[in-house]
Design a protein that fits this description.
alpha/beta, Rossmann fold, five-stranded parallel β-sheet, four-stranded parallel β-sheet, GDP-Fuc_O-FucTrfase, fucose metabolism, O-fucosyltransferase family protein, transferase, transferase activity
């Protein structure tokens, strides 16, 4: 009898261990610890660079890429401003943007998170409209350790520079008076052109600057740094490919949706930016380009697998459940995942050609159970919901995990999703789309 009690007790302990392991595992993947405070590290001999972030998330990401690459080229430590989430920050001239960012702080507003929106005191006006996070929340910044020197800042204010032993006379400013005021070049060649930029600065000129800190204005633009030296070009491409989303919550939820769609081999991804700027004006034209490109890609797959294609296609113009779509041939009735900034894409008349041509098209809002945990994500520093900022990231990852991907011309979001797509699959698609 004692033997059976002992076996039962051991079994109970084992079950408890399994429950604890499951809890720990699910916690790791369902939530994400956000490092908010950083201890400045500096030496008297170290040299630094920094810049002024602006615009939306992906434009800030491009600035991050350029800053990391410059730090490598100049052998300086880049002081990384946090990612600012909220309404896009319009570009301003250096002094104006510098002053605006210096005042962008919640350091003395900790009490604001204790109020409901309707009860906010005057000093808390606008508190809920923005938040900031370190870049390591989104990307695996440790991938650059030992190769590129960087330190994450927690604030935008210039008085933070004193933490690195930097005084006013230690700063060399590279100020911009227009958005595309300067481009940075590793060397000139016979084909070099300024294009939209007003002037060019050689890397060697920057390397000769003696001041402890080089303070740039905007570093936005995929053409901000132009490389002619082959090893520089190769390293820059490698750096960009390493900056892929590394957020556990984004990965977990996007994988759930991708699996529900039948897995990466069984659906195709589209990104359509449509709700702002010239994208709204060009919605119809861009949709026709996307439809043409996705049909071209589907034809290449049909040619490769024609012998295995069977069954009839769904009637055009009729919507169908995901379950019924997955029972059909992926070539006859292809499953499409549409990532878009439109709030109600099915109700948009301009998108009717897409849903008519491809009735097995699905969007983020079709996956409520898979995305439920995303709505729990908050920044512990100010209690601001991160959900509105994480949804586009999930959208882009799901679309980029599709077997083929097509995006919107001139969209930085689409360009990044295409990069993710090529990293995930280790190949380019058969049609070379121009974004």
């Amino acid at each position: 009898m004692v033997k059976y009690y002992r076996q039962g007790f051991i079994l109970l302990l084992f079950l408890l261990w399994l429950l604890c392991a499951y809890y720990l595992f699910s916690t790791i993947w369902e939530s994400q610890e956000i490092p908010l405070k950083f201890q400045p590290e500096f030496s008297t001999s170290e040299k630094y660079l920094t810049y002024l972030p602006h615009s939306g998330f992906h434009n800030q990401r491009i600035e991050l890429e350029n800053a990391l690459f410059l730090a490598k080229l100049l052998n300086r430590t880049v002081l990384l401003p946090p990612a600012l989430l909220g309404p896009p920050i319009p570009w301003r001239t250096f002094n104006s943007l510098h002053n605006w960012l210096s005042g962008k702080s919640k350091r003395s507003l900790g009490h604001c998170k204790n109020y409901k929106l309707k009860e906010l005191p005057l000093e808390c006006a606008g508190y809920e409209t923005w938040t900031k996070l370190p870049w390591r929340y989104f990307f695996d910044m440790d991938a650059f350790r030992g190769k590129i020197k960087f330190q994450q800042q927690t604030e935008f204010a210039s008085n933070e520079l004193a933490n690195y032993g930097i005084d006013a006379e230690d700063i060399h400013y590279v100020k911009d008076t227009t958005l595309y005021n300067y481009t940075i070049v590793d060397r000139f060649n016979s084909t070099f052109a300024l294009n939209q930029f007003s002037r060019a600065i050689l890397v060697s000129e920057l390397a000769d600057i003696p001041q402890k800190l080089i303070f740039f204005g905007s570093l936005f633009s995929s053409w901000r740094i132009q490389t002619d030296i082959p090893e520089n070009t190769a390293y820059f491409q490698q750096l960009r490919r390493k900056l892929v989303y590394d957020s556990p919550v984004v990965h977990t939820i996007s994988k759930r949706i991708s699996a529900k769609l039948g897995g990466s081999e069984n659906y195709y991804g589209i990104h359509l930016r449509a709700s702002d700027f010239y994208f709204a004006e060009d919605l119809g034209k861009n949709l026709m380009i996307i439809l043409d490109e996705i049909k071209q890609m589907l034809r290449t797959r049909e040619d490769q697998q024609a012998m295995g294609v069977s069954g009839s296609r769904f009637e055009m113009g009729q919507s169908h459940s995901l379950e019924s779509c997955l029972t059909r041939s992926r070539l006859r009735s292809p499953v499409i995942y549409l990532a878009t900034d439109l709030k109600n894409p099915r109700e948009e008349d301009a998108l009717s050609p897409l849903f008519k041509e491809f009735p097995c098209t699905f969007v983020y809002s079709d996956f409520k159970s898979e995305t439920a945990s995303l709505y729990d994500e908050r920044n512990p520093e100010d209690s601001i919901s991160l959900t509105p900022h994480l949804i586009p990231m999930v959208d882009s990852v799901v679309a980029s995990r599709g077997y083929f991907f097509v995006g919107t011309p001139r969209s930085t979001f689409s360009k990044y999703a295409l990069r993710l797509h090529e990293v995930y699959f280790g190949r380019k698609d058969p049609i070379d789309i121009i974004l």
